[in-house]
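Q: Could you fold this chain for me?
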Amino acid sequence: MRVVVLLFSALFLTACSDVEDAVPETPSVPLFCDETKILDSFPEKVANAKYIPTEWEPSEGTDLYAAYNAGGIACTYGIGEAEVGATIIWAPDYGITFADREKFWKEAGQQEVDLPDFDEERAYFLSQGTEEQGEFIIWQLNVLKGGYWIQVGATFLGSIEEAMPIVKSAFDSILTTEEAAAQNVKGCYFSEANNDLFIMDLTYHDNSTVTGNLAYQPFQKDSSKGSFVGTYENGILHGVYTFTSEGRDSERELYFKRDGEGFVPGYGPVEVIDNKFEKLQRPLQIKWDKVYKYNPGEECATVIKGID
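A: Sure. Below is the predicted structure, expressed as structure tokens.
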């Protein structure tokens, strides 16, 4: 499940970073699917294609799981009612992600290829279907270049040559260092309403991965504080809050929506798993509570430290 991916991702990225609270000094995967250059590269036969919002729930062992585990993002574009489209995965490689997936691709029949007029490091390709009719059950291209792994999976592509405009636009959609810094959400946020005080201190944001600390001090109720591990994509911060309350370790799935320079928390029906993990029920029925909006502040770490 997605929330499990987030936990593994945090452990991996913490090990890769010497300074946890540093502003990213590298490019980043796109953070908003509707701001990429993918649709402009679609062929004319897929006219009127759009970004199709998707709530991913990656299964362990899949490419999608590996991508999100590395701080990646997946976006689907196409014509939903016609079931025609493409899903693009972006993920930082860190020197291991692509290599870890290679053996699985080879086992699935993917062949290493040399892309035309493109300076990739490695690429693998697989297609299964009826080429004469342009109907493909599987059409997938995995490319490694410049420290990023990009996967193009589509129902309408008939050749690698036809896919190259999409491949190039996918790499062109990777955020520059400056663009990544402008969309970075690292910072201190406070929510104060009805005598309640909630604090969110986001100390790390690189690619789609975000980590930090949270503290809850509701009026005349028990307070709690702990760590947060999540992803930020398409304006939504989604992750797991791990905390100790009343002497018991607990985990809670959380959603926040970007609103100006702050965040609005989401809420909905919850189910408790193993008497420990509070997870929002699927399908998601999230409502956003602007009364408890988190606004930028200062000295989050100091305030959190003072909460019992």
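A (continued): The helical segments are 2-16, 63-69, 97-107, 160-172, 177-182, 300-306.
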